[in-house]
TrEMBL record, chain A:
It comes from Geodermatophilus nigrescens. This is Carbohydrate ABC transporter membrane protein 2, CUT1 family. Residues 1-28 are annotated as: Disordered. GO terms for cellular component: plasma membrane. The keyword Transmembrane helix applies. InterPro entries: MetI-like, MetI-like_sf. Residues 95-286 form the ABC transmembrane type-1 domain. The lineage of its organism: Bacteria, Bacillati, Actinomycetota, Actinomycetes, Geodermatophilales. It comes from the Bacteria.
UniProtKB/TrEMBL annotation, chain B:
Its main location: membrane. This is Raffinose/stachyose/melibiose transport system permease protein/xylobiose transport system permease protein. One of its GO terms (cellular component) is plasma membrane. The keyword Transport applies. Pfam families: BPD_transp_1. Residues 1-20 are annotated as: Disordered. Belongs to the binding-protein-dependent transport system permease family. It is a multi-pass membrane protein. Residues 83-292 form the ABC transmembrane type-1 domain. It comes from Geodermatophilus nigrescens.
Length: 300, 308
């Protein structure tokens, strides 16, 4: 099927163009500095950096300090006070909820996507391919448009205000992209490998275990990161499907801090900063995986 | 890391042979995924259409009310305004995000010194959740204590309180959030353009700007399409940013269609009417995706990436 996809692809690159394999090597082009691009990049850099600098620097100031001087002045006496206020204000609970939601969503998505992608990639039957097409339509469904019936379903299932209420729809809406990424990756496994397994007498289940799972690891990572980011940053489902403090996730918690802290801007910014820390750590550990997860399914 | 334009392993794919067909996995392997997706995505899609013909306050069961919600929707000027605003957001977002993302993406694909450090700075907004970004900008733009109030020129504007300015403010904040993502797409694509093309063009005497318009831009065409599709679908369904940043206000200056639906439903408890708006969004959203994917072959392009 990847072949058909490739053929259906209108010649994007001149066929004669040599495949470029070297990377990170200084190429001959761009000897002269590109001033226009440099200036634009610098402007955008300022636009990106100033708010982030403000986020961290203001979160280290006391409220009085913040109100009395310009918000951009670096403070003489940084304080961790705001962070301890935030941490004692339920942040740990929200963080824990967020982690539970994220891990469970990823687990569900990976568990149902791998076998589904395997059969879509290897079974050219009409039923399976039709299922795949229907799932792909899901790429276009705005979650907002289904939030009311999802709310109805969740209340009827007596799941309202539980973490499961967030997990189930979040996982369902992550499935189309996950399936797409996983299927494309499994289609790239050479047929010979499948055939060799079959000749050795392995049934589909054995092939899944011994061939597909090991080779799909990069795709599983991508899907996991993509799903995790979505679940981690999810807002609408938690907003509509939960209400109590016990089930509050980080994004809603932040919004709640906004109301709770009122004009205590440094406190709010400390909460925002803390909410970024886990993803930032992930970024430092696995930049490559994080970026591939972000662009999952959209070409690289 | 090949370009998205080339299939990763064309030779092996083309040699697919038939004999192994008997031992293929059955459709049952897809059942868990289908069941899950069916229950939480397909069933709600059908239900929302049903609910649009009912009156439901959120408690008890919905009651059938005929086409009442729909005739109301046709007359509803607020809904029309919300849809118009959504359209405006889609256009403005595209106009702002696409050129900037292309320029930075192409720049970041180059090999200048400090590029790695700078581009990892560019990508930092990607690490913040929508809620975090909206709250951050809400304090940056705060009319009393915000950063913009301490800066020359910018202190003249009330970015969140002025109905003429607020639309552009929201477009800007959304651009701040999403440009890094699109930059990433363009960076990857620009890196995949063979250096030999530029070398040849240089030998032929083409300058940098000429090269940009005759080589880079045409070869980024399909990435532009991908990025456009994602932007259109994304800005069509923008919700959290606006809810947190402005709450749809001041007045109804930023009350885009999804937010209008949310307010009607979850604040006004008119779930039947909100479902009619949701159905309209669903149809428009699906139509939009269908049109852009058909027009551009987006779906087949998606299978060009390898592994990750």
């Amino acid at each position: 099927m990847a072949t058909t996809a490739a053929l259906a692809e209108p010649g994007a690159v001149p066929p004669a163009a040599p495949r470029r394999v070297r990377r990170g090597r200084p190429a001959g082009r761009r000897e002269k500095p590109n001033w226009l691009a440099g200036v634009l990049a610098t402007v955008w850099l300022v636009i990106v950096a100033v708010p982030l600098y403000y986020l961290v620097s203001a979160s280290l100031r006391t409220r009085q300090d913040y109100l009395s001087t310009s918000p951009l002045t670096p403070t003489g006496e940084p304080t961790g006070e705001n962070y301890s206020t935030v941490l004692s204000g339920g942040f740990a609970q929200y963080l824990l909820n967020n982690m539970i939601v994220t891990v469970a969503t990823v687990a569900i998505v990976v568990a149902v996507t791998v076998p589904a992608a395997y059969t879509v990639a290897r079974n050219a039957g009409r039923t399976v391919q039709r299922i795949f097409s229907v799932m792909l339509i899901g790429l276009a469904i705005p979650a907002q448009a289904t939030i009311i019936p999802v709310y109805l379903l969740i209340t009827q299932m007596r799941l309202y205000d539980t973490l499961l209420a967030i997990i189930l729809p979040t996982a369902a809406f992550a499935l189309p992209v996950a399936l797409l990424v996983m299927t494309n990756s499994l289609r790239d496994i050479p047929s010979e490998l499948y055939e060799a397994q079959t000749l050795d007498g392995a049934g589909p289940l054995a092939v899944l275990r011994h061939l597909v799972l090991p080779l799909a690891k990069p795709a599983i990572t991508t899907v996991a990161v993509f799903t995790a980011l979505n679940a981690w940053n999810g807002f609408l489902f938690p907003l509509v499907l939960t209400q109590s403090r016990d089930t509050r996730v980080l994004t809603l918690g932040l919004w709640d801090f906004q109301g709770q802290f009122g004009t205590n801007v440094p406190g709010l910014l400390a909460a925002v900063t803390l909410s970024v820390v886990p993803i930032f750590v992930l970024y430092l550990v696995g930049r490559r995986y994080l970026l591939s997860g972000l662009t999952a399914g959209f070409g690289k | 890391m090949s370009t998205q334009k080339r299939p990763s392993a064309p030779t092996t794919q083309q040699r697919t042979s038939a004999p192994a067909a008997q031992q293929r996995p059955s459709a049952w392997y897809a059942v868990p995924a289908v069941a899950f997706f069916g229950l939480f995505a397909v069933v709600p899609m059908v239900l929302v259409v049903f609910l649009s013909f009912t009156d439901w306050s959120g408690f008890g069961f919905p009651e059938l009310s005929g086409a009442g919600n729909w005739s109301r929707l046709v007359e509803d000027t607020e809904a029309r305004d919300a849809l118009g605003l959504t359209l405006l957001f889609m256009v403005l977002s595209w106009v702002v995000q696409t050129p900037i993302a292309i320029l930075i993406g192409v720049w970041a694909a180059g090999r200048q010194r400090n590029r790695a450090v700078l581009s990892s700075l560019f990508f930092l907004p990607l690490l913040l959740s929508t809620a975090a970004i909206a709250l951050l900008w809400r304090s940056v733009l705060d009319p009393n204590f915000g950063v913009t109030q301490s800066l020359p020129l910018l202190d003249r504007f009330n970015f969140l309180g002025d109905t003429d300015v607020v639309v552009y403010t929201v477009v800007f904040v959304i651009a701040w959030q999403y440009i890094p993502f699109h930059t990433l797409l363009f960076q990857a694509a620009a890196r995949g353009i063979p250096a030999s093309l530029y070398e040849a063009a240089t030998i032929d005497g083409a300058g940098r700007y000429r090269q940009f318009f005759t080589i880079t831009l045409p070869l980024l065409k399909y990435t532009v399409v991908t990025s456009t599709v994602l932007q259109l679908v994304g800005s069509f369904t923008t919700f959290d940013t606006i809810l947190i940043l402005t709450g749809g206000g001041p007045g109804d200056a930023t009350r885009i269609a999804p937010l209008y639906m949310y307010i009607r439903g979850f604040s006004g408890f008119e779930f039947g009417y909100a479902s009619a708006i949701a159905t309209l969004l669903l149809v428009l959203g699906a139509g939009l995706s269908l049109v852009v994917t058909r027009a551009t072959g987006f779906r087949s392009m998606q299978s060009q990436q390898e592994g990750a």
